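Student: Hello, beginner here. Can you help me understand the protein record under this note? Any guidance would be welcome.
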Amino acid sequence: PLKILNWHEVVNDVIAGMPIAVTWCPLTKSAVVFEREIDNEVLTFGVSGLLYNSNLVFYDRNSNSLWPQLALGAVTGKFSSQNIPVIPSRVVTWRQWKKEHHQTLLLSGKTGFPRDYSRDPYAEYHRSEHAMFPLKHADTRLPPKTLVIGIEVEGIAKAYSIDLIKNKSKPVEDTIGLLKIKIFAGSDNTAYITDEEDDLLPAVTMYWFAWSSFNRGTLLYGE
């Protein structure tokens, strides 16, 4: 649940035998799920307290390497320049998740930490039009806190404004490189991208300022 991740940002877990990390950055509004096994070593991640382009930087407790969430890899330490496998995922409402997964497990709010998980500490921030910290790179094609869903295919990055596509009667179809994709967006601002066979692709929803900072020169749907 995002109401828990708002306070903790990283959850280490094992699903069907696969070590994973579920990560959430409230400042960039981005959720990414990673595999935790790198070069036959299972890593355990924690929150470093640092930010890069306003984005969560986590570290692995094995080597203290630093991993900005949206860099999709380490930038310092033993694993510097090492990419981390991304697991395709979606941000959905609890109602939708229960409908699709009747026997689901749920992360308990009994974490052992004195947190009020009913309160969103970032509510006022999300209502603001501005990022919390100065941006090193500002792409003015969209307002900075426009929600987009972004994907990289064959080294080509492209973003889709959720406001632009969420009221369409059918998925938006597009081609990046040689890959034909379909972009889905709901009125609740949830979005995801699949290939032609409806297999989920590793796309990420986030604020435009974050996507454009980590993907300079990105393509933008509608241009």
